[in-house]
Amino acid sequence: MLAKRIIPCLDIKDGRTVKGVNFENLLDAGDPVELAALYAGKGADELVFLDITATLEKRKTLYAMVEQVASRINIPFTVGGGISELADVGILLNSGADKISINSAAVRRPQLISEIADKYGNQCVVVAIDARREKDKWIVYLNGGRLHTGLELFAWAAEAERLGAGEILFTSMDHDGTKEGFAIDALSHMTQTVNIPVIASGGAGTMAHFADVFTQGAADAALAASIFHFREVAIPELKQYLMHHNIPIRL
């Protein structure tokens, strides 16, 4: 079995790392470059950098900051936010990103997934999906949870895979920042729907939540933000905990 991955997430707004609850009430969590270096040194398997207002503000990702982060880390680095065309991807990869994450742009023009995959490889394309449960369905949202798309989560994930996505980053808006656990049922369904790695996001609060998401949810990787930013859970201790629970992990 492949080792499970622990991925800190840096949500960036106005050049600072921020974190909220259910995509709202954002708090400052520190300097992204320093946090990135800290997590790389503490054993994070990968890092995700999301410029969370780039699409809403109709601007490009902060390329200079991407370069600064890349210069301080030695682990795979995924960047998202404001990517709307193939040229954006080339600039980010040249700035130090290993993979790119697309969300709104993929929904608005799904062919972009194929264009990136064809030019740079499937392994480069992470399709991020933000969704909320509505009655008996999970519905996809855009623009930081502001825009209802009408798309059904699992159908869109399957389509993203068909178009060339190499990974799915699924964030449950209902669980985001609550620290009450991941959306296990949805994740379990997701991992049975697609044949590419699934990164779970939204709800991490304890080490046990990570064990649950890897066993019950069958996620390939788990992403978290506030519990790492505010020193509630340390990555080395988390990895030891998972190892002791027989979950394959890189120490």
Arithmetic mean of pLDDT:
89
Q: Work out the count of structural domains.
A: 1
For the largest beta-sheet, the strand count, sense and barrel status come to: 8 strands, parallel, barrel
User: What would you call the shape?
Assistant: globular
Instruction: Report the count of strand segments.
Output: 12
* Alpha-carbon distance between the two ends: 15 Å
The CATH topology, please?
TIM Barrel
Write the H/E string, N to C. Answer: EEEHEHEHEHHEEEHEHEHEHH
- How much helical structure, as a percent, in the residues? 25-40%
Descriptive notes:
This protein has 251 residues and is α/β, with parallel strands linked by helices. It has one domain: TIM Barrel, CATH 3.20.20. An 8-stranded parallel β-barrel has the order 1-4-5-6-7-10-11-12, surrounded by 6 helices. The chain is globular, with a radius of gyration of 16 Å. About 4% of the residues have low confidence.
Summarize the structure.
Helices cover 36% and strands 28% of the residues.
Output the keywords.
251 residues, alpha/beta, 10 helices, 12 strands
Can you lay out the helices and strands and say which pair or pack?
Elements: E1 5-13, E2 16-21, E3 24-30, H1 32-42, E4 47-51, H2 63-72, E5 77-80, H3 86-95, E6 99-102, H4 104-108, H5 111-120, E7 125-134, E8 137-142, E9 147-152, H6 153-163, E10 167-172, H7 184-193, E11 198-201, H8 207-215, E12 221-224, H9 226-229, H10 235-244
Parallel strand pairs: 1-4, 1-12, 4-5, 5-6, 6-7, 7-10, 10-11, 11-12
Antiparallel strand pairs: 1-2, 2-3, 7-8, 8-9
Helix pairs in contact: 1-2
